[in-house]
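MOLECULE: protein
FOLLOWS: sequence and fold
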Amino acid sequence: MRALLESQHAKLEQIVIHDIKDSTFFAKLIIRSNGEVQEIDARPSDGIALALRMQAPIFVTDKIALEESVRTKKPKSRTPKNSRNSSTSSNRQTSSSEFASANSSRSGPHGFRSGA
């Protein structure tokens, strides 16, 4: 694909992972050729591999970043139940809205989030 783009003097502007349906992610390659921008459907894995080879940015829509992110659980403390401090809030998880506002400065064009 890289050789095809280069032979047509086209530039991969970015890849956007934009949707998920039935546990399958969908992506688009944003390509500029002869001054025109074109969107080409692609598998995310192929798009990511191409973007890395061509040093193009990789973006993920807010929908994917917020709805499909995986939270890791902290291991349970081995402290006996009667000695735990119930007022401790350091184990509080961040809500989606807090996550969005904390990371809003990293949004790219069209509301996409950069992987960087």
